[in-house]
Amino acid sequence: MRTGDQVVQGLPWRWRAQGTIFVIGGLGFLFDAWDVTLNAFLIPLVGAEWGLSLGERGWVGTANLIGMAVGAFVWGSIADTIGRKKAFSLTILMFSVFTVAGAASPDFVTFCVFRFLAGVGLGGCIPVDYALVGEFTPAKVRGRVLAAMDAFWPLGATLCGLTAAYLADLGSWRLLMLTMVLPALLLFWIRRSVPESPMFLVAKGRTAEAKKVIDDLVSRTGAPREEWRLPEPQQVQRLSAKVMFAQLKDIWRYDPKRTAALWVLFLAVFLLYYGAVTWLPSILKAQGYGTYAAFMVTTLTVAVGIVSALISAWLVDVFGRKWVIAISAPLAAVALVMFAVQLDVGGAAKAWITAYGMLIQVTIPALYAFAPELYPTHLRASGFGWASTISRVGAGFVPVLFGALLWPLLGLAWTFAAIGALVVAAVVAMMVLAPETRMQPLAEAVPS
């Protein structure tokens, strides 16, 4: 007799059932993208208002990204302790409150503090949303669904870019921040209707609730009814710092090789992403582009990722997660180096930065489909969350280091080449140390 979690993973995919959760989770990812991309447009506007140096301007992005790093592991651990549903809603609420506070900041230090706190809230969206959506998604389409969810990222980044370009003449970074708060609060209200993950409920011994969710899901998908059993529940842990770091210890104990490979891969890929996107408007303005033109080129770079994410969703189930990452990530680094080398050649530079935007958005969806499949239920959100934390901590210092040290001293081409070398090393580590997860059931036991 199959267990309830096996029943959920074997159900047919239906838009009125799992698809609703996919869309609601994806909208949270949209706001994550919007907020991260917003840093690129805030840097020149905030810098101009308060007369900031290049190094000081870097803190606009760094404060936000470090907050997201903290939020990624905090909310991932919270989600594994109190439930996906509560964390699912609270991340958006915290982000909305501190974004409003940030828009009202009277000085730069206060602004950075509120950007950090908004980042803590939004940083939890990726690990929590992916854990919840992944646990409701049938195994046979899980890779495709989780990769397709990343299409919400370039969509959010594009909406941010279009809004920034439209408001560029006003020069109001405060209004630019407030434009995403009302829809985010609406999403908070909608998220209250999302059911708790049955796999989480089973793990925590809430068997009556788990049975209700699973039976309802079977009914809504139209699957034939069958007898199934609930697995033995695990002991419920109360949320604490001790629990969070115990989860970190458990992640490494579960499989140190795959964890090491995943952390290095996350760090390298997001150094490549944030290093380029965060500073792209400023790089273009330094080349003589006007504010509107610089914002629109940046918007195009992220907008092409909408198509790329859909392509990635198909590729990961055909060729596997690892091969998609292994090919697209190094090629994205090459395109970025070529952009820097030919920056003075307008047409060529635009072509290379567009190619970079397409390739990096093939890599990231595949990485997000890959990461949560490497861990069992009780570590899925926190395992993904800690990997996301490492990437955000490393990438979080990129805006400051890029503006104060790397760009002025090494130049763009050598800076991007160094990051590209790290990407290649991370891909090699992944290919050697991590297993392929295509069409595999979600892990529930320590690998032999």
TrEMBL record:
Major facilitator superfamily (MFS) profile domain residues: 21-438
Localization, UniProt: Cell membrane
Keyword field contains Transmembrane helix: yes
InterPro entries: MFS, MFS_dom, MFS_trans_sf, Sugar_transporter_CS
Gene3D superfamilies: MFS general substrate transporter like domains
Keywords noted in UniProt: Membrane, Transmembrane, Transmembrane helix, Transport
Parts of the chain that traverse the membrane: 21-46, 58-75, 87-104, 116-133, 145-167, 173-190, 260-280, 292-316, 323-341, 353-371, 383-407, 413-434
Entry annotated with the keyword Transmembrane: yes
Any GO molecular function: transmembrane transporter activity
A cellular component term, taken from the record's GO annotations: plasma membrane
Principal location class: membrane
Pfam families: MFS_1 (PF07690)
This protein's name: MFS transporter
Organism of this sequence: Lentzea guizhouensis
